[in-house]
Amino acid sequence: MSVVEHIQEFRRRLLISLGGILVGTIIAFIWYQTSFWGTPTLGEILRDPYCSLPPEARASFSGSEVDDCRLLATGPFDPFMLRLKVSGLVGLVIASPVWLSQVWGFITPGLMKNERRWTFVFVSIAVLLFVAGAVLAYFVVAFGLDFLLTIGDEASMAALTGDRYFNFLLSLLLIFGVSFELPLIIIMLNLVGILQYEAIKDKRRMIIMLLFVFAAFMTPGQDPFSMLVLAISLTLLVEFAIQFCRINDKRKDRKRPDWLDSDDLSASPLDTAVGGEEAPQPVQAPAPVDGYQLRGSAPMADNGANRASTSFKKGGSAFDDVL
């Protein structure tokens, strides 16, 4: 394909991806307050960690004893913009099969058969790891909110706005999902030969310490429960990646011939074992040499003087081959 054809192909796939995201956003916008086939609405799913808190930890705006579990809005456009923002992010997830397939269809023609296979495997694993991290964060956020909102409930009561709560929730989901891609990056670096097991096997303590520091700084609420869950999860995943590096490097060493590890300036040892290429071979008995004589003369004894002064030939003169 020419450059113009590549641009046209990119534009076509981009429009299809944007169309899929738009449809997903519309579905999420409707799902925000509408239940389909008895399933909870999107708003209920996202508010569930907040609603799981004890009622005395949340501010009530209805004045009744009924637990309405509502978030605070401080502006006239806040509910609409919040619903639109959440619908856009959820629509991106709903339409992920569409835009991922378009991205895959655009890059596949430029890859070899084995490259397509490995790329598909790594993209699939990356999606699964991101989803696993986001799901874990969804169940963790309730414990983090419980710690943050009840730590000073004797003197104050938390009244969360919808914007602050959803920013906190979506940030935690994103951080957990992206952090879970770390072991996949380690495995990819090992497969291409950049990161070896020997380079990281003695640095586990440093790696664990860095993971705990990373979790402490990256969790949006800095509550100890979220930080601990993220750090422990990453430690387990990174340990799995390190063990994969160990097994993969051992497999490579079995396939690597010994002569590749020898010094370039030193000779390789001879293969003198029985059946080897450099093994001693038996010397065959010498064969007799045919005698030579001068033309028209009796046989002469073969000595150094005759060989030095006379040309020998079985038949014909010494220059027959030239003439």
What would you note in describing this structure?
With 323 residues, the protein is mainly α. The protein is built from eleven helices and no strands. Residues 308-314 have low confidence and may be disordered.
Number of strands: 0
Q: What is the count of DSSP helices, taking H or I runs of 4+ residues?
A: 11
Q: What is the approximate shape? A: elongated
Largest sheet: none
Low-confidence stretches: 308-314
For the terminal residues, how far apart are their CA atoms? 69 Å
What is the element string, with H for helices and E for strands?
Answer: HHHHHHHHHHH
Mean pLDDT: 79
**CA-based gyration radius:** 39 Å
- The proportion of residues in beta strands is under 5%
Structural class: mainly alpha
Fraction of residues in H or I helices = 55-70%
Which descriptors apply to this entry?
single chain, 323 residues, mainly alpha, 11 helices, 0% strand
